[in-house]
Amino acid sequence: MAEKKVLVNICRAPFGSVFYTEGLRAAVGVSAGIDENIPTVLFQSDGVFYCLKDVDRTDAQAYFESYKGMGTKLYAVKEDLDERDIAEDELAEEITVISREKAFGLFQENDFNMDF
Amino acid sequence: MLYLLGDTIIGPVGLEHAQMDPEAIVVLIKDGVYLDTRPVQNKKIYAVDVDVKRRGMEGRLKDKAEIIGYDGLVDLIVEHKVANFV
Predict the structure, then answer these.
(1) What is the pTM of this model?
(2) Is ipTM over 0.95?
(3) Looking at residue A5, what DSSP letter applies?
């Protein structure tokens, strides 16, 4: 297989489950190996709670360090932030806010997607 | 695109995406059979038989979705690009 674009779609709230950490880990994992696939991370629904700048990243800090090195894009959906009264200045600096329509476009652009 | 909707937490997000896709095909699987599909009633909707029967949802879904087995689901997955919300 050749290099693919992979969208990691995190929709569940952080903590209390393995979903969000497994999703963040998967984003690093798909970039490894001979194919060096290109991951993008999308936070939707309650998943946007993990974008808060004050969130505890103890269990995933290494993944975020990897994203920096890989230039991985991290997106949060504005409509989901608004529904939860989360302002953009409450987000971690590496998060880019996009519309639901743009998020929809990410599913079209990427070769594969995985949900967590 | 084929939208696999498998629970009531992230399934609604998938419903929103399916609404934006003029060629969306929706598949209800696992707890996705509990989803309110009215927002996508103009789309083709399938539901996986064992998941429907196990949850006693046949009567509630019979007019809204075509019931398929896992063999049919495999065919759909092979034939379409898939968006996962399971």
Answers:
(1) 0.87
(2) no
(3) E
User: Which CATH fold topology does B2-85 show?
Assistant: Hypothetical Protein Ychn; Chain: A, (3.40.1260)
Q: pLDDT at position A34, please?
A: 78
Q: Tens digits of per-residue pLDDT, B39-79?
A: 999 999 999 999 999 999 999 888 899 999 999 999 999 99
SS3 for B6?
Answer: coil
Say how many domains are in chain A.
Answer: 1
Instruction: Determine the distance from the C-alpha atom of residue B32 to the mean position of all C-alpha atoms in its chain, rounded to a whole number.
Output: 7
The residue of chain A nearest to residue B13, with distances taken between CA atoms, is A45
Q: Which of B9, B12, B83 sits opposite A107 (nearest CB)?
A: B83
CATH classification of the domain holding A94: 3.40.1260.10
What counts of helices (H) and strands (E) characterise chain A? 4, 5
- Helices in chain B by DSSP H: which ranges? 11-20, 49-54, 58-61, 70-79
- What pLDDT sits at residue A1? 57
Range of the domain at A44: 5-115
* Sequence spans of domains, chain B: 2-85
* Chain A neighbors of B12, CB-CB under 8 A: 45
